[in-house]
Amino acid sequence: MPSVSLAIHRREGVFVVEHEIESTAAPEAVWSVWTEVPVRSRWDDLQWARLEGPFAAGTSGWWKPAGVPRLRIWLEDVVPGRRFTIAATHQRHVALIRYRHEVVHADGGSRIMHRVEVSGRLSRIIGPLALRRTAKDLPDAMDRLAMLAGGPDRR
Predict the structure, then answer these.
(1) Which end of the chain is more exposed for a tag (fewer CB within 10 A), N or C?
(2) Of 100, 102, 98, which Cα lies nearest the Cα of 111?
């Protein structure tokens, strides 16, 4: 079942929004769309994105979300075909944003999960501001991702 949640983990000081969908798209097809970083703007709320190397842990790059300055990004971890995390710093390192993505086989397709976490010195200010829009936009972005991967969302 699809779900969206916005929660504060007070003991960790982390703001989180997460969403998951099931799709008829194969996990390999979802992975293929995810790793095409220059065309991420076709499904995500970005004007553009690029990596300065392979889709592997440690590779850095840039992306430009709508309505905010461009952000330096890097791949923190990558498990090919399964999951990866993109991290970005915001406003001179006052917040760290992690975009966690995971796909697993589900009956007749895949379950796709996205989780965005905001932590850091000013996360109590930046977290709610950044994640309010993310919570609103994430379901549509994931539907577009599923469609590009070749399978409609099965809500």
Answers:
(1) N
(2) 102
pLDDT digits (tens, 9 = 90+) for 57-82: 999 999 998 888 899 999 999 999 99
Q: Output the pTM of the full model.
A: 0.88
Domains of the chain: 3-148 (3.30.530.20)
pLDDT value at residue 126: 78
User: 6-11: long-range contacts at Cβ-Cβ below 8 A with a sequence spacing of 24 or more?
Assistant: 6/131, 6/132, 6/135, 8/127
Q: What pLDDT does 130 receive?
A: 78
CA-to-CA dists, residue 114 to 11, 52, 69, 121, 136, angstroms: 22, 23, 22, 24, 13
Q: What is the C-alpha to C-alpha distance for residues 34 and 81, in angstroms, rounded to an integer?
A: 10
Q: Which residues contact 84 (CB under 8 A, 6 or more apart)?
A: 34, 55, 75, 77, 78, 100, 101
